[in-house]
Design goal:
Aspartate Aminotransferase, domain 1; 5-stranded mixed beta sheet; 2 domains; binds pyridoxal-5'-phosphate; alpha/beta; about 40% helix; 7-stranded mixed beta sheet
């Protein structure tokens, strides 16, 4: 399977005709539990001596196809699919951090992640230190003795900024810690972070992997290269585990240890399992990921070029534009396209942003990205509302910022709708 090209993997990786019925599409195994052959079989499954299905909170055959497919597309060794992107983040940090530990995260992140890291994670005793992901020196400076990971987005939400993954990976690896890359906005079609040094790749599958705005999901991809036992920083992976009679996860499972730990400890005990139905919906979406991402990128470039010339627009931030500060990094990391998402500044600030989203037709005013439909939002009054004005600006979501997620409609229709609303 690994010899096949990306478009072939997007359709076939992980899937084969159902051995019982011959069904060609992956069936939805809508069952909570699976019958054991006998007591010995059950014992070996519970003891992690054999791979197999016990209960859909931990594994499910439909979800397993999704996991294998995303691992193949990202060039990872294993993956775990969960209920949402935020669940993927929670399980990742649950595996890496002990109470009192720190991690460094980019300031340029999805607003929900800034809130999750800065507020809810505190209750677990996990501490985030913020850094400027456009400046590897800032990341290096934020790393301390208790820092266990660095977290960035490949294309940052909402600004669409392209981050120099290899430079940040070098800083993380010098400190003996893994780099986690949220690759939601780029998708593996445009950019594959593991090839540039990422150790763990995360997705909100809710967005481009699913692609149709109909199903929540998240994925954790294990790059398989990080040495979890070196330096004793990751006891969950390297030390004997009391809930499996002293089993050492890294020693036992080797390259796939991180994905295994996220499943058999994090997902088992915290519980954010993906529904098999959503796994099926996301799998179906992935079959057309290459076609959609190309069209999203091509249309977004057309819309960005149009807005750049509009008198009511003060600036456009899209990495695909030749004079954009991210253009060089986009050409290096994602030469096929800069994705669907970008921001622009509207004359008149906060009030004009609100008027635009209230008056526009065709584009839906909502808090999502990566739909077939074009979406618009004014982050300062919605997704980034919980942040201070300083955090909003640092995250690329100041009062005049409007964010677009360009869908798959005729680009001319999207431009016409923007034109009409901007002159309102
Ligand atoms: C939406 C999003 C998330 C959170 O994912 P959910 O599926 O909504 O939980 C995380 N990161 C990025 C970049 C996102 O866009």
């Amino acid at each position: 399977m690994t010899d096949y090209g990306f478009d072939t993997l997007a359709i076939h990786a992980g899937a084969k005709p159902d051995p019982t019925t011959g069904a060609r599409a992956t069936p939805i195994y809508q069952t909570t539990s699976f019958v054991f052959n006998d007591v010995d079989h059950a014992a070996s499954l519970f003891g992690l001596q054999a791979f197999g299905n016990i209960y859909t909170r931990i594994t499910n055959p439909t979800t397993a196809v999704l996991e294998e497919r995303v691992a193949a597309l990202e060039g990872g060794v294993a993956a775990l699919a969960v209920a949402s992107g935020h669940a993927a983040q929670m399980l990742t940090f649950h595996t890496l951090l002990e109470t009192g530990d720190h991690f460094v995260a980019a300031k340029q992140l999805y607003g929900g992640s800034i809130t999750q890291f800065g507020h809810s994670f505190k209750k677990f005793g996990w501490h985030v230190d913020w850094a400027d992901a456009t400046d590897p020196a800032s990341v290096k400076q934020a790393i301390g003795p208790k820092t266990k990971a660095v977290f960035i987005e490949s294309f940052a939400n909402p600004s669409g900024l392209v981050i120099d993954i290899a430079a940040i990976a070098a800083v993380a690896h010098e400190a003996g810690i893994p780099l986690i890359v949220d690759n939601t906005l780029a998708s593996p079609y445009l950019l594959r972070p593991i090839e540039h040094g990422a150790d763990i790749v995360l997705h909100s599958a809710t967005k481009f992997l699913g692609g149709h705005g109909n199903s929540m999901g998240g994925v954790i991809v294990d790059g398989g290269k990080f040495d979890w036992s070196k330096g004793g920083k990751f006891p969950t992976l390297s030390e004997p585990n009391a809930s499996y009679h002293g089993l050492k996860i890294h020693e036992t499972f080797g390259a796939i240890a991180f994905a295994i730990a996220c499943r058999v400890l994090g997902l088992r005990d915290l519980g954010p399992a993906l529904s098999p139905f959503n796994a099926f919906m996301i799998l179906t979406g992935i079959e057309t990921l290459p076609l959609r991402m190309q069209r999203h990128s091509d249309s977004a470039l057309k819309v960005a070029e149009y807005l750049k010339t509009h008198p009511k627009v003060t600036w456009v931030s899209y990495a695909g534009l030749k004079d954009d500060p991210s253009y060089k990094l986009q050409q290096r990391y994602a030469p096929k396209g800069a994705g669907a998402l970008f921001t622009f500044g509207i004359k008149g600030g906060y009030e004009s942003g609100v008027t635009l989203v209230n008056s526009i037709e065709l584009l839906s005013h909502l808090a999502n990205i990566g739909d077939t439909r074009s979406l618009i939002i004014h982050p300062a009054s919605t997704t980034h509302r919980q942040l201070t004005e300083e955090q909003q600006k640092a995250a690329g979501a100041g009062p005049d910022v409007v964010r677009l997620s360009i869908g798959l409609e005729d680009p001319q229709d999207i431009i016409k709708a923007l034109d009409k609303a901007l002159s309102a």
